Amino acid sequence: MSAYKIETHTELETLKFAQKLAVLLKPGDVVTLEGDLGAGKTTFTKGIANGLGVKRNVTSPTFTIIKEYEGELPLYHMDVYRLEHSDEDIGFEEYFKGDGICVVEWAHFIEEFLPEERLTIKINYIDEHKREIEFIPNGAHFELVINELMS
Ligand code: ADP
Ligand code: MG
């Protein structure tokens, strides 16, 4: 397993990078986002949504856990922060095996439900505008995606 890192210096740069990733994704792909509150997980998801041609404004699903958006592929945006102390399964597999792109903030809280093949993204807050973004592909498909993304 290999790791890849980039740095962004503005919100726009993060959005653009996420947008570039989105066009490399295929139906059923699961992308997990880790990082502290304010790191940029929802911002990164907005970039993915842009790349998928989602027209609606993407907002944090913290209180709803899952929000669905219509794009060139459906986007399922989850924020599972509220499931930290729960092992509730709210039907994740239907989403993970589905025909859309799943983006999961705080995914380690639902580790037991995550598919093995996934793209893990860790966002580190460096300073007010600077973020370090690490990509950890799991599986051959995501290795290819990341190689393409970094080239
Ligand atoms: P999270 O979902 O991880 O809690 P958000 O995406 O909601 O984080 O918030 C990230 C905040 O950081 C936003 O207010 C965004 O404008 C700001 N920000 C500043 N610089 C960056 C950057 N380089 N990349 C992403 N977000 C940034
Ligand atoms: Mg968020």
UniProtKB/TrEMBL annotation:
It comes from the Bacteria. InterPro entries: P-loop_NTPase (IPR027417), T6A_TsaE (IPR003442). The keyword Cytoplasm applies. The keyword DNA repair does not apply. One of its GO terms (molecular function) is transferase activity. Gene3D superfamilies: P-loop containing nucleotide triphosphate hydrolases. GO terms for cellular component: cytoplasm. Keywords: ATP-binding, Cytoplasm, Magnesium, Metal-binding, Nucleotide-binding, Transferase, tRNA processing. GO terms for biological process: tRNA threonylcarbamoyladenosine modification. PANTHER family: TRNA THREONYLCARBAMOYLADENOSINE BIOSYNTHESIS PROTEIN TSAE. NCBIfam families: T6A_YjeE. Belongs to the TsaE family. This is tRNA threonylcarbamoyladenosine biosynthesis protein TsaE.
